[in-house]
From TrEMBL:
<dbReference type="InterPro" id="IPR035669">
    <property type="entry name" value="SGNH_plant_lipase-like"/>
</dbReference>
<dbReference type="InterPro" id="IPR001087">
    <property type="entry name" value="GDSL"/>
</dbReference>
<keyword id="KW-0378">Hydrolase</keyword>
<keyword id="KW-0732">Signal</keyword>
<protein>
    <recommendedName>
        <fullName>GDSL esterase/lipase 7</fullName>
    </recommendedName>
</protein>
<dbReference type="InterPro" id="IPR051058">
    <property type="entry name" value="GDSL_Est/Lipase"/>
</dbReference>
<feature type="signal peptide">
    <location>
        <begin position="1"/>
        <end position="22"/>
    </location>
</feature>
<comment type="similarity">
    <text>Belongs to the 'GDSL' lipolytic enzyme family.</text>
</comment>
<dbReference type="InterPro" id="IPR036514">
    <property type="entry name" value="SGNH_hydro_sf"/>
</dbReference>
<keyword id="KW-0442">Lipid degradation</keyword>
<dbReference type="GO" id="GO:0016788">
    <property type="term" value="F:hydrolase activity, acting on ester bonds"/>
</dbReference>
<dbReference type="GO" id="GO:0016042">
    <property type="term" value="P:lipid catabolic process"/>
</dbReference>
<dbReference type="Pfam" id="PF00657">
    <property type="entry name" value="Lipase_GDSL"/>
</dbReference>
<keyword id="KW-0443">Lipid metabolism</keyword>
Length: 388
């Protein structure tokens, strides 16, 4: 999902002092120990606020989650840059893979003097994986730029290429290639291209592109970036579809939902994007033997939760735990006093992002389809075992 509009984040940025600095170690704490033997060498993450674990703490941006009450239910009970009350899906998946929580790429650069020189500490920081995800980022480079700096999809892939080069210099080309081939890459991005670009009609985009044409542009760009990853020996990839953006509290508020019904116009565009993304991924695998992309339908998994809230233990599927206005969708979570006492009873944490409880369910589905089948043709547990 995405981050709040500009006005909301201005309030977020200036209304209270930050509780967590960019240098805080809470951004990438170790997973609870003892961990099992890792199932893969490393876990690499590309994405937006659905996967950001602290990248934007290092950027000049309004799209930050480095203050309370964000992170209040996280392992460290401190804000880390994650847009949730607790963990996000990649944290649960790293744990399933037997790996530590994956640190932000920019954190690694800060610790090694901005990337000048490759030394043991640098390699140690990247050897189990790196998280490049940046809140407000989109497939289109300018998506989300109204909020300030971010690292777009293309820039994140360039960072992956830089990581590969650094590992090649430190470990040798053969070892680096083998590391990438056996590791899992996770991609979750695209919501901001609608929230901060198409739906806002930036530069008259709706006149120039019908929704299906815009989706074709997005998916084509995504395919090219996946090809760039393939060229540096990425072979196992989890590709996340978009969630039901039209059900987010922000849009329930903005579009005047009367009884909590989702905004069909938005969801229909998202469904079309997801269909094109799944088709592209299957065609890519067909054309590139020795690779596997598992497309995971976040929309399908999320709708299952929304339609079966009682089975999952949720009290409300419309109201954000932390926010203002009807459905809590008028403004982003700003102060601890704005948050409900029990986030686990809510599907939504803030106006765009799900709670830790939802993130756990979605991660379970990506891993094994525990609650609902989301990933095609393989779930992550199967992908890990696949010999390519």
């Amino acid at each position: 999902m995405a981050v709040a509009p500009l006005l909301s984040l201005f309030v977020l940025f200036f209304s209270s002092p930050r509780r967590c600095s960019a240098n805080a170690t809470a951004a990438s704490p170790p997973s609870p120990s003892p961990r099992p033997t890792p199932l893969v060498p490393a876990f690499f993450v590309i994405g937006d606020s659905t996967a950001d674990v602290g990248t934007n703490n290092y950027l000049g941006t309004l799209a930050r989650a480095d203050r309370e009450p964000y992170g209040r239910d996280f392992d460290t009970h401190r804000p880390t840059g994650r847009f949730s009350n607790g963990r996000i899906p990649v944290d649960y998946l790293a744990e399933r893979l037997g790996l530590p929580f994956v640190p932000p790429y920019l954190e690694q650069n800060m610790r090694t003097g901005g990337g000048g020189g490759v030394g043991p500490a640098n390699v140690d920081g990247m050897i189990h994986g790196v998280n490049y995800a940046s809140a407000a980022a989109g497939i289109i480079s300018s998506s989300g730029s109204d909020l300030g700096m971010h690292v777009s999809l293309t820039q994140q892939v360039q960072q992956v290429e830089d990581t590969y080069e650094q590992l090649s210099l430190a470990l040798g080309e053969t070892a680096a290639a083998d590391l990438f081939r056996r590791s899992v890459f996770f991609v979750s991005i695209g919501s901001n291209d609608f929230i901060h670009y198409y739906l806002r009609n930036v530069s008259g985009v709706q006149v120039r592109y019908h929704p299906w044409e815009f989706n074709k542009l997005l998916v084509s760009t995504m395919g090219q970036e996946i090809k760039n990853l393939y060229n540096i020996n990425v072979r196992k990839l989890i590709l996340m579809g978009l969630p039901p953006v039209g059900c987010a509290p922000h849009f329930l508020e903005e579009y005047g939902s009367q009884t909590g019904e989702c905004i069909d116009y938005i969801n229909n565009v998202v469904i079309e994007f997801n269909y094109a993304l799944r088709y592209m991924s299957s065609e890519f695998v067909r054309q590139h033997p020795g690779s596997m992309i598992s497309y995971c339908d976040t929309f399908e998994g999320s709708v299952d939760i929304l339609n079966n809230r009682e089975r999952y233990g949720f009290v409300t599927t419309t109201d954000a735990c932390c926010g203002l206005g009807k459905y809590g969708g008028l403004i982003m979570c700003v102060l601890p006093q704005m948050a409900c006492s029990d986030a686990s009873s809510h599907v939504w944490w803030d106006e765009f992002h799900p709670t830790d409880a939802v993130n756990r369910i979605l991660a379970d589905n990506v891993w094994s389809g525990l609650h609902a089948k989301m990933c095609y043709p393989l779930d992550l547990q199967q992908l890990v075992k696949l010999k390519l």
